[in-house]
Amino acid sequence: MTMDFTKLFELIVAASLINNFVFTRFLGLCIFFGVSKKMETAVGMSVTFTAVMMISAALSWVIFNFVMVPLDITFLKIIVFIGVIAAFVQASDTIMRKVAPALYYKLGIYLALISTNCIILAVPLINAGEHYNFIESLAFGLGSGIGFALALIIMASIREKLELADIPAPFRGLPMAFIVSGLIALAFTGFSGLITL
Amino acid sequence: MANTADTVNYLDLIKNGIIKENTIFKLALSLCPSIAVTNNLKNGVLMGVAVLFVQTMVNITISVLRKFIHPKVRLPIFMLVISGWVTIADMSMAAFVPDIYKQMGLYIQLIVAFASILARAEMFASKNKIAPSMVDGIGMGLGFLFALTVISFFRELIGKGSVWGYAIINAKPLLIMILPAGGFFAVGILMALFNWIDIRYLKKSATASH
Questions:
Q1: Which residues sit opposite B163 in a β-bridge?
Q2: Does residue A110 lie within any of the structural domains?
Q3: Separation between Cα atoms, residue A146 and residue A161, nearest integer Å
Q4: Among B27, B32, B87, B101, which would you mutate to test the A interface (most chain A Cβ atoms within 10 Å of its Cβ)?
């Protein structure tokens, strides 16, 4: 396999900054607003998400290209991908509890939240739609994970400060979080055109 | 919640879906498409209709099968039913409205991951008869459609100066509203507006503040 590292690097940068999942594709918003209140949970969530994203990208790629394409059942991709991800998350939950209980107590609650999350499902769906090869799929998963982590950590650090701010009553809580993400999204539009793939 | 009562008032169910438990403005669930596809009214309405269809059909299916589903394996079965109906919606949209599907195909496929649809299947359809489940699905779907229509109406009006593709305002539009950032602003401001109405007229504290 000829590996073109420049292309892979571009793919990672594009997935994390230019097409940032949260700010330009608007995926994973429920989780994004749900866990960005505290820095600690935001970091835990980002680590788990990136790992799950890469592994599920790899698993779904193998199943898509070696099982579904030969059998001509690609129209079932939604059902199959969600099944693969749910099964993988459930399995890693069980394995982690037995093998690494310390890690489980730290990240286990995030795992449970992940199984039916749109951002995790989007990675294999986009990989299949764009016909990426195996390494490219992994790179796309990694880039998306980094992008999501970046978004969560920026948001968490702002929201920790927002707790102390004097906000008009109707805007308190979620509405303000939306306005803040709008401002961050505005900043992220500056990345568009950085690399043309 | 009196969801499991024997006598169910259908009108209340519809009202519950549109106002009291509005998926986007009140429960703050399924937010992704509320921003992603709402930069013009046509896309917003179509997305709303797709969700209305899936929610209703899922509720009916789960309600029909509720006696046969073992509680231990209910979640995988719910997911299977949901992804089946989403696949149907996805393929029909690709066939009938290919232009719009090109822009928002990914988001149609991701209806599968809507917390609100799974939540209604779990909380309502698996415990109720077919008719109330269907009405509940229609109510929740209409609430979603309503929210998307409002958001996309304002975004298209301010961002492009048009409604449903027809130019109305003859001035230079505020381009920011159809950019990604504008979606966040629009939802934030509308949520604040709903909270303000709540505080001002219903004399209770903001509910969407978790």
A1: B166
A2: yes
A3: 23
A4: B32
Digit-coded pLDDT (tens) for A125-140: 888 888 888 988 999 9
The per-residue pLDDT of chain A, averaged, comes to: 84
> What is each CA distance from A171 to A34, A165, A167, B72, in whole angstroms?
17, 12, 7, 41
Q: How many domains does chain A have?
A: 1
Q: What is the count of residue pairs from A and B with beta carbons less than 8 Å apart?
A: 132
Low-confidence ranges of chain A (pLDDT < 50): none
**B7 Cα to chain A: minimum distance (Å):** 33
- CA B68, B70, B75, B76 torsion: positive or negative? negative
Beta bridge partners of B166: B163
Query: Domain range for residue A69?
Result: 20-189
CA A188 from centre of chain: 17
Here the tokens at position B116 are 């609100």
Give the length of chain A: 197
Cβ-Cβ contacts under 8 Å, B176 against chain A = 186
Q: Kindly list the distances between the CA atom of residue A27 and the CA atoms of A121, B55, B65, B73, B173, in Å, as whole numbers in the listed order.
A: 10, 20, 31, 28, 27
Show the DSSP H helices in chain B as ranges: 10-15, 32-36, 41-65, 74-96, 98-109, 115-120, 130-160, 180-201
Q: Is B161 exposed, middle or buried (0-12, 13-18, 19+ CB in 10 A)?
A: middle
Sketch the domain layout of chain B as residue ranges.
27-201
**Contact flag A30-B28 (C-beta cutoff 8 Å):** yes
* Residue A118 located in a structural domain: yes
Q: What is the pTM of this model?
A: 0.81
Rounded Cα distance, A171 and B187, in Å:
11
* End-to-end CA separation in angstroms for chain B: 19
- Whether residue A15 lies inside any domain: the answer is no
- For residue B173, is pLDDT > 90? no
Task: Region of A28 please: left (phi>0), alpha (psi -120 to 50) or beta.
Answer: left
Q: Chain A closest CA to B118's CA: distance in Å?
A: 10
Pair A137, A36: CB distance under 8 Å? no
The per-residue pLDDT for range A164-177, each reduced to its tens digit, is: 888 888 888 888 88
Angle between helical axes of A174-188 and B180-201 (0-180°, round to 10): 170
Phi-psi region of A72 (alpha: psi -120 to 50; beta: other; left: phi over 0): left
